[in-house]
Predict the 3D structure of the following.
Amino acid sequence: MYRRLMAALVQIGGSGEVGRGCAPARPRPREPKPDWLKVRMPGGGRYEQVRRTLRELNLHTVCEEASCPNVGECWGGGTATVMLMGDVCTRGCRFCDVASGVPAPLDPLEPRHLAEAVGRLGLDYLVVTSVNRDELDDGGASHFAQAIVELRRAAPRTLVEVLTPDFQGSREALDMIVEAWPTVAAHNVETVERLTPRVRDRRAAYRQSLDVLEHYKRGGMRTKSSIMLGLGEARAEVLQAMRDLRSAGCDILTLGQYLRPTEKHLPIEEYVRPEVFAELEREGVSLGFKFVAAGPLVRSSYKAGEFFVQRWVDSESVAG
């Protein structure tokens, strides 16, 4: 029953040196990963418990299968990322390893099954994302919203962050997410405005993504977005994207290194050094983001950001 339920999505980050131009046309030798991208093998009691339970429930996680660098930190800390509405996307972004094509029909029991599984896992923090389902009238928003409602019912102590598609900018669809009231509503711009047509599917517009975040913020949501580095963006373009996100009311920002999934995907321009990420993190704080996580191994669903959200929620509970 659970076999086709979902797969967890690794947030593909970005790699490359800020300040480079577009990728050259000629192929080039693969550059070895620098030391700062090497991580320890995952392990530990809670990591093993989450891994075992996911396997027992046949919940397939790309976090594990694609060797996400943060899987040990996340699972060991009681966090997981799951994907709704199947594992075939109607879009074909050039950085993403999720299959594109014609998806299978939605499973109407998926929201309930997901909630039951999460209740058993006893997670502290859950990130729920999905493929794009542009063939559906509401882009799958009602299905996504129902999953949030079921999760809040079955696991009331679990904080639920949702990383949603743009739903083609439909305000009615976005309102469904707001009304379901997740802990955090996230949507990624992924890259700077100039590179968006090259990096993302043609239906994924930069300004539309900003509008999604602004709509969530108007609805009272805590909002979040992510930018990949290393696709040919200039430092000035990254800073402008950060300013655009703040203007849209984005509260939380993550910046990470793009890692090319396969040879068919966009090439890595250059590995961004940790000190560049540190500089951008400081810039983000000065721009007014409530929290910024920036580093080579940072992904959209990143543990440090989740600790911040927990403190944010706790502080509001005390104030209320």
